[in-house]
Amino acid sequence: MLTKRKSRDEIKKEFESLAFEYMDQLFSTALRLTKNPLDAEDLLQDTLLRAYRFFNKFQPGTNFKAWIFKILTNTFINRYRKQQREPQQVDFEKVEFAYSDDGKASQDRAHQEEIDYRVHEHLFDDKIKDALDRLAEDFRIVVILCDIHGFSYKEIAEIVGVPIGTVMSRLSRGRKQLQKFLEEYAIQEGYIKRKSN
């Protein structure tokens, strides 16, 4: 039996309908990974472009969320490794723009970015965000995928590209570090009592 080939528009609509469902989760994860709204936007855009480019490799009926989160984490890891190898660079056009007469446009953009960042930031208490940010990248990724987005160990293993045992180990170690970082906060908020000596 011959199956009708989908048109480019049909493929685009199918991709958009699947991706749109996870857009907020993808952005919040990108923000947690990069710790910067502009970098998170860039990471999300790169992720969506890659996912769309390779959408023909996605198997319909399988877990799209896990598939696109794998692309997000791989894109982040590859970018992070590349940045670690490159010397810090300054974009002189941006510096010039910031100090030119058009500085107001730069301030308006910065103000909007700050508002966007604050909207996301209200989801987590500052102490919790700071503790998450202090985690090593490998631990932070699995904690975010498991405890914030609810992926199973198997899904995380596929997303990150490591064995399930490694996911469990990283998750355990990440949670222990978070617990240590947040112990004083938990006492202050009344979640736990201070241990008496």
Write the layout of secondary structure elements.
Blueprint: H1 8-20, H2 23-34, H3 37-53, H4 64-85, H5 92-99, H6 103-121, H7 126-134, H8 137-148, H9 153-160, H10 164-188
Architecture overview:
- α2 packs across α3, α2 (23-34) packs parallel to α4 and α8 (137-148) packs across α10 (164-188).
- The protein folds into three domains: 8-84, RNA polymerase sigma factor, region 2, helix turn helix motif (Rna Polymerase Sigma Factor, Chain: A, Orthogonal Bundle), CATH 1.10.1740; 90-123, no CATH class; 125-197, Winged helix-like DNA-binding domain superfamily/Winged helix DNA-binding domain (Arc Repressor Mutant, subunit A, Orthogonal Bundle), CATH 1.10.10.
- The protein has 197 residues and is an all-alpha fold.
- It is built from ten helices and no strands.
- The chain has helices at 8-20, 23-34, 37-53, 64-85, 92-99, 103-121, 126-134, 137-148, 153-160, 164-188.
